[in-house]
Structure formats: C-alpha cells, structure tokens
Amino acid sequence: MAVANNDDDVERQQLHPEPQAAEAEKPRPSVVQRGGLHPIFYILAWIFFSNLTILFNKWMIDGRGFKYPVILTCWHLIFATIATQVLARTTHLLDGRKKVKMTGRVYLRAIVPIGLLYSASLVCSNMVYLYLSVAFIQMLKAAAPVAVLLTAWAWGVEEPSLKRFLNILFIVAGVGLASLGEINFSMAGFLFQVGGIVFEAMRLIMIQVLLSGEDMKMDPLVSLYYYAPVCAVMNVIVAIGSEANKFNIADLGKAGLGLLMLNAMVAFMLNVSSVFLIGKTSGLVMTLTGILKNILLVIISVMIWKTNITPIQFVGYAIATAGLAYYSLGWEQTVAISVGIWVYAKSLWERVAGNYSPLSQGEGQEAGRLPAAVKRALIMGLVVVSVVILVAGFLYGSGGPSTGPISKEVAEIGQGA
C-alpha cells in the first residue's frame, strides 16, 4: 500500500503463499535483473522504508498536527500516480506492465473494485493513527492472516481446514490478549484497524480471483501504476465529504510542505524497495524479514514514544507472533530453522570460546544447517536491531520527542469518538 502498509504486496506472499513459496530458496522472477548489490541490501532497504513510512505517518498526524489522514492518503496517491507515470517513461522498473493484458473491460471489472478496496484499507490504516499507538497497531496487524484465510474460505478460494482454523484461533487469542492489556484502548481506533485488515484481505482475495492468470500477475510497482489513479480519485471524493470542511490551511504550513513532500517520497520508495525485495529473495527470507520487521517496529515505537506495554500485551503479542510464524512457515520449516539457528549459534560460541573443532562442525552439518541467505539476513537483522535500540535508548534517555504515543488532543478525540 502506498501509505501505511505499502508492503502488503510483499506480505501477501507470507499470508497467502503459493504452495512452493515456503520451501523454495530459489529467487522469484522479477523485472529486476540479477547481479549487482547483495540481497541483504534489499532486505534492509525494505525494513527501513516500511518502518520509516509507518513512523513518519504517525509523526505527521500526531506530532506535526496534520490530523487529516484521508487528505494525507490522497496526497500520497497523487504523488504515486505522477511518480509511476514518470518512471514508466524514463526507466525499466515498470516494464512488467507490458506483460499485463490490460483492457478497458478488465480495468472496470477488476482494477476499479480492487482499487476501491485498496483505497478503503489505506484510509482506515491512516485513520487509526489518530487513536492508537504504533506498537498496538502492529500487534493488531498480526491478525491479518486470519482475515485473509476467512475471506478465502468465504469466497471458496480455499477449502476449510481444521488445522488452519486452530492455527488462526491461536493467533486471535494472542491478539485478544494484547488488546485486553492495552492501556490507551480506543474502540474507534480498534474498529478502524479491523476495517483496514478486512478491506485488505478482500483486496488480496479479489486479486487472486480476478487477476490470477499468468498474463495478469503484477509486482507492487506495476500494481500501484494501475491502482493509484483509481484510489486517488476515490480519496478525493472521500476527502471532500469528510475532511475538506474542517481543513485549515494553517495546518498545511504547520506540517511543512517540504515534510509532506518527503513523506510522500518515503511512502513511494517503500513500493520501489518491495519490487527489489521480491526479485532478490526467496519466500522463506521474505517471511522471516516480515516477522522481524514487525517486531522491530514495536520495539522502535516503544522506545521513541515511550509507549507503555503491559505484561499481558507482551504475552499476547508473543503468542500471536508465534502463531503467525507457524502459519507462514509450517511445522517442518519452523523446526528446521530453529535447529539451524541453534547449530549456528553453538558454532559461533565455540569459535569465540576457542574450542571449535571439525568434529563439532560435522555434527552441526548433520543436525541441520541454516540457509546462507537466511543466515545473513538474521545477522544483519540483529545488527540493525542493536543499532536501533541504542539510538532509541539515547532518545529515550534524553527526553525523546515532545509528543507521547497519543497527544492530549488526539486522546480527547479518541475518547469522544
């Protein structure tokens, strides 16, 4: 999505993967050519822009006082429309659109309804920043696979399965615990987030139903090329009816034209990084990266905004994350990765302790080995987490930003909604 969850086209491959996605370590085909920068660069770029987009949007709406989420979403989509048109004419990033057999009939029957759902999910995802903290929003997003799976069952795309049903109940239980433990709970914010998840689930299933042909597959940037104009028009209509009458031009100057431009550029760069991530990594690495990204975002928001996380919330989010990992990877893959991590950590400890031997190495190879790409991703992920925690800890210790997780004015809005 072009605003708060642009990475949904990437995460779609985690929440609703193709049969071979979880086990294949082969790179996915893409418009992106092989060679060049190391895949770790694309992983870190996607994590960076994904989390930065969410934190930036929260700060613009809450910290800078630009409390017009629909107008902000509309601006992002107008920027995305212009940017994709320019890129299509000046670069090869959108060459994938030439493989899509787009006709007026397909556009009206598929792109327009999917674009409307896309627009609704964007608006809901930005509206929620008025009411809830970033950490709690990410906890609620762990329920996204539940909505996707239930929608798939309702549309007849997948056959109901007791095993999967129990798995999603596990995730729901974790999200429920996290919600019960939320101190600044807002029903309006909760409903907006649930609405965003449901609209996005419907969009993903409609893509699978209406655009499932080999000649209709689109990467995130090509999708944005077709959806952004529809979403922009839809959001202009919504903005006129909901926020235009209360819009104060002084708030535009207060937010800063330069920051609004930068905000739209960051949101758009998330789509660009998504294209390269899909082209340079496997389904397994993308799944692990997505889970790491969500956990990292919770940590960052807690440190920067000093969000209070209760023990019951921590337990609930841990349960939901474990359920999400199992849902995305499956039992065999989860066990294989766990064993690989243990063996790799053990070999590292033996090297540090000075008692590493070929025998222990041989035992490690027999026990299982973590794929090289996953190994590098985990190492770089740990480095990023460490750096972010140190920086956030410095901000936390020096007083942090002037606004809390929910400013006084926003809190009053949430209580009155």
From TrEMBL:
InterPro entries: Sugar_P_trans_dom (IPR004853), TPT_transporter (IPR050186). It is a multi-pass membrane protein. Keywords: Membrane, Transmembrane, Transmembrane helix. Its main location: endoplasmic reticulum. It is found in: Endoplasmic reticulum membrane. One of its GO terms (cellular component) is endoplasmic reticulum membrane. Residues 1-10 have a biased composition (Acidic residues). The keyword Metal-binding does not apply. Residues 1-29 are annotated as: Disordered. Residues 41-328 form the Sugar phosphate transporter domain. The chain crosses the membrane at residues 36-56, 68-87, 107-132, 139-156, 162-183, 190-212, 224-244, 256-278, 284-305, 377-397. PANTHER family: SOLUTE CARRIER FAMILY 35 (PTHR11132). Homooligomer. Belongs to the TPT transporter family. SLC35D subfamily. Involved in the import of GDP-mannose from the cytoplasm into the Golgi lumen. This is Solute carrier family 35 member C2.
